[in-house]
Amino acid sequence: MTDTSLHNAGYEAGMGDYFALLKPRVMSLVVFTALVGLLVAPTPVHPFIGFVAILCIAVGAGASGALNMWWDADIDVKMRRTANRPIPAGRVTAGEALGLGVGLSGFAVVLLLLTSNLLAAGLLAFTIFFYAVIYSMWLKRATPQNIVIGGAAGAFPPMIGWAVATGSISLESILMFALIFMWTPPHFWALALFVKSDYGDAGVPMLTETHGRDVTRKHILVYTLLLVPVALGLGLTSIGGPIYLLVAAVMNIWFLKGAYDIWRRNDAAATADNYQVEKQVFKVSLYYLFAHFVALLIEAAFRISNAGGL
Fold first, then answer.
1. Backbone dihedral region for residue 37 (phi beyond 0: left; psi -120 to 50: alpha; all else: beta)
2. In principle, which of 103, 244, 258, 305 could form an S-S bond with 295, CB 3.0–4.6 Å?
3. Helices 171-194 and 213-234 meet at what angle, rounded to 10?
4. For 123-145, how does the pLDDT look when each residue is reduced to its tens digit (9 = 90+)?
5. For residues 310 and 294, what is the distance between their CA atoms, to the nearest angstrom?
6. Domain at 1-168, CATH from 1.10.357.140, 1.10.10.10, 1.10.760.10, 3.40.50.10490
7. Residues 6 or more apart from 271 whose CB is under 8 A from it?
């Protein structure tokens, strides 16, 4: 990868610039879902071990973000949404981002191995590799299915949290993974519908650019339909329950209605109202994932409370 940064020789990067490389907003979602995976697991974890594990997962996610920004510096500068990131804006060099990403990756994986178990550390290492190499370096610029396959990177954290607690993979952790994996395509395609020019300008083969907007709308509906049984199925496992199923039913009806509304629109109508429906569905998708994982936490709290009363 060539250093494509527009680095200003007279500018001295601050902590805020390096922190921005870690994609803190993405990191917050990773930390939250990993924490839920750890807390809903049937095996209790010592608070210190749990804290260190979540810290490692957060650092690993940040390292992935830095590596992604290092590799994508040449296309980030072409997109309005990413042009002010530290590298294209000239605040940090690509080489600095690479060094930070590699260093934090090694730190996170080794520390998780020492404080947790081999499976959890291995999953974290694979997640970083998947996001930085398989998604960023290969899939993102090679196929319109980049979001579909690449979504696995963001789906691993609850599985890692579960592995920290249990040292294993189970149906519950697989379904938490599947929930995020199936949620990712409609979530990002809804975004792509109203930031379409960014991806086209950068030459990224987003589905909206390669197959058109009507096809993208159909894909959003199809993937949302496939998401519903996964979300409800999680409620039938040992970590689910009536509260989760109620929340899942409400959120899936809401999200599915939004996907249907997107599917039945044409681009003329979307342009006329400045993509209000697409923007609303994107917001709903954020609430959707948060609500499901909060419901899992509530179910876990009730199980602990009931067990304490026996």
1. alpha
2. 244
3. 160
4. 999 999 999 999 988 888 888 88
5. 25
6. 1.10.357.140
7. none
